[in-house]
Amino acid sequence: MPSNKSVSDAPITQFVNCRILREHKLQREDLWVREGKILDPEKLFFDEKGSADQRVDCEGLIIAPGFIDVQINGGYGIDFSQATDDVRGGIALVAKKILEHGVTSFLPTLVTSPPDIYHKVCPTSIFLLTHQHLLFLAIVSLTVNVLPEVKVHSGGMEGAGVLGFHLEGPFISLEKKGAHPEQHLRSFLSDGMSDLIETYGTLDNVAMVTLAPELPNSQSVVRELTQRGITVSLGHSVANLSQAEDAVRYGASFITHLFNAMLPFHHRDPGIVGLLTSDQVPQGRTVFYGMIADGIHTNPAALRIAHRAHPTGLVLVTDAIAAMGLPPGRHTLGQQVIEIQGLHAYVAGTKTLCGSIATMDMCVRHFKQASGCRVEEALEAASLHPAQLLGISHAKGILDYGGDADLVLLDDALNVRATYIAGQEVWRKLHHHNC
Amino acid sequence: MKLIILNDYDQVGEWAAKYIRNKILRFNPGPARFFILGLPTGGTPLGCYKKLIEFYRNGEISFKYVKTFNMDEYVGIPRNHPESYHSFMWNNFFKHIDIQSENTHILDGNAANLIEECDSFEQKIKAAGGIDLFVGGIGPDGHIAFNEPGSSLMSRTRVKTLAQDTILANARFFDGDMSKVPTMALTVGVATVMDAREVMILITGAHKAFALYKAIEDGVNHMWTVSAFQQHPQTVFVCDEDATLELRVKTVKYFKGMMHVHNKLVEPLPPK
């Protein structure tokens, strides 16, 4: 019998024959789920006299918290930064497909784009804009908007949950623009925040902003964004270590794709990379850093250096672009055209990388193999650490009692076999007899 | 008394588990007829629990129609404290088998009225029809459950203050810090265990040897409360070689000589 119904009469699922990632170790324990959350079976037994309604035999698989991708620009032909009529549909398509990679939550990422991509132009909002833009607005009719279209929402059968947008640019450095379009880069004029709001239109449903801290007037922006609960990330920047440390003091807590689009490590000024071992990080705070572990964006030796210097801050990101999941050839990213050659994606006609096409589970496998880390560390880099970065690790990225039951089931080679959101199976690899 | 002498800790756990398994299977419990088992906690019975779990996993035994009564529980630590006896039973036994929660009984050390809790426990044992087999261990000071030296041999379930020896022995479960060990516990009485139809005591290790000597070769004495079982018609003591170190050679030879008879009790039962 399920329980004495004293707490809930919702059905209880018990995952058996599995190894779960808990307290940084893989343990042979059953995992109990009720109403989309991880359940404490001891409390269930003694308080509610309860037992499972349904048992799922995992045949020895690993259960890890579902992966969280905090930097993904699109995939399967969808480019989140591109003007389309169906922004919501595009994000939904990618959200559905990435379930196959074990991703249960993500931040759709927008690269540097013209203002009309970010916000809708309409009569009432004209009052908020400056004189320079009025003429522009008169010409531009109702165009597409992206930010107001998609709200933070939980995942499920339809796809991974959206935790909010990651706005990478346009407040970044010209010298380190990478694949971002130069004509849309911006700097903070007098009052940083109002430039920001003017560019983005709204900060609702924004989870992260990447900016270059050496831009004048950035300090107030960093502070204000942090206060609003938005993660500030440093990237596409030529900041030195001191500027980076200042930004961290004001609240910055992430580094966008470490090593890429920033000054290289120098022994007399380590730049942003130096944050990994900086002694200026305020007590109790961690600086996290994104790594694209696709074997292309970072040399394995560099990956190892970063990992060994600061293992608990490493966050795996895909930085996947529209071509992820598509065959080789030409595709569109932001306002530019890119070309796929094998596992490489270049700005068409150049050798500048413009994003990766590796999937999250590929990154987890590659990271483990390149760094030689333990399985638990590889899994945490894609789940616990991004959750900690976003301040949601009480609910996501963990398999603790009371947490959300977003799960990824993997074999020992870390191939995804099944994905669950809120305790419901949302994807399963076919041709295997497992859960 | 049957004294079963085996080579080591693992053999003791295995023999005891087989004995319990056979008892339950012979009893043939069902929805109208539960097998009532009294259970201990601590290091000594762990091996036995592991073996019972193995037998359950092999399909040799089910606990669906078994009711359990634990001997004791600390007063004042949260039920989900890693060292509470609720946690011990859940992690080491209950969560691995098919026992139903409403068929398990462990004293509640956080009850509003501890005396009522103890009396109610005695009532529950009575309502279940009494205990078929009570499994227990022995402390270095010869106590059964928390019936410390000086406990009445006629005692029933009640609140006890723990002896220094016991607190010392338990400190290893509380980071070696004696100040963290609870000082009071609820425990079944000596007479509560004596009421069981059969009693099985497990004793392993040289540090228990003197207590075993006092329990079976010396007189019945409230300073060594396990000695009370000399007056129980059906008691089995299962021990390893180290625990016999303080016994007379004659005693050990006598009981070792009977092992071929006693081992019949743990042979696999013929299939139905």
Automatic annotation (TrEMBL), chain A:
Its EC number is 3.5.1.25. GO terms for biological process: N-acetylglucosamine catabolic process; N-acetylneuraminate catabolic process; negative regulation of UDP-N-acetylglucosamine biosynthetic process. Zn(2+) binds at residues 168, 236, 257. It comes from the Eukaryota. Residues 62-426 form the Amidohydrolase-related domain. The active site is at 319 (proton donor/acceptor). SUPFAM superfamilies: Composite domain of metallo-dependent hydrolases, Metallo-dependent hydrolases. One of its GO terms (molecular function) is metal ion binding. The keyword Magnesium does not apply. This is N-acetylglucosamine-6-phosphate deacetylase. It comes from Esox lucius (Northern pike). The lineage of its organism: Eukaryota, Metazoa, Chordata, Craniata, Vertebrata.
From TrEMBL, chain B:
It is found in: Cytoplasm. Signal peptide: none annotated. Its EC number is 3.5.99.6. PROSITE patterns: GLC_GALNAC_ISOMERASE. GO terms for biological process: carbohydrate metabolic process; glucosamine catabolic process; N-acetylglucosamine catabolic process; N-acetylneuraminate catabolic process. Its main location: cytoplasm. CDD domains: GlcN6P_deaminase. SUPFAM superfamilies: NagB/RpiA/CoA transferase-like (SSF100950). InterPro entries: Glc/Gal-6P_isomerase, Glucosamine6P_isomerase, Glucosamine6P_isomerase_CS, NagB/RpiA_transferase-like. GO terms for cellular component: cytoplasm. One of its GO terms (molecular function) is identical protein binding. Residues 15-234 form the Glucosamine/galactosamine-6-phosphate isomerase domain. Pfam families: Glucosamine_iso. Keywords: Carbohydrate metabolism, Cytoplasm, Hydrolase, Phosphoprotein. The keyword Cell division does not apply. It comes from the Eukaryota. It catalyses: alpha-D-glucosamine 6-phosphate + H2O = beta-D-fructose 6-phosphate + NH4(+). Homohexamer. Belongs to the glucosamine/galactosamine-6-phosphate isomerase family. Catalyzes the reversible conversion of alpha-D-glucosamine 6-phosphate (GlcN-6P) into beta-D-fructose 6-phosphate (Fru-6P) and ammonium ion, a regulatory reaction step in de novo uridine diphosphate-N-acetyl-alpha-D-glucosamine (UDP-GlcNAc) biosynthesis via hexosamine pathway. Deamination is coupled to aldo-keto isomerization mediating the metabolic flux from UDP-GlcNAc toward Fru-6P. At high ammonium level can drive amination and isomerization of Fru-6P toward hexosamines and UDP-GlcNAc synthesis. This is Glucosamine-6-phosphate isomerase. It comes from Esox lucius. The lineage of its organism: Eukaryota, Metazoa, Chordata, Craniata, Vertebrata.
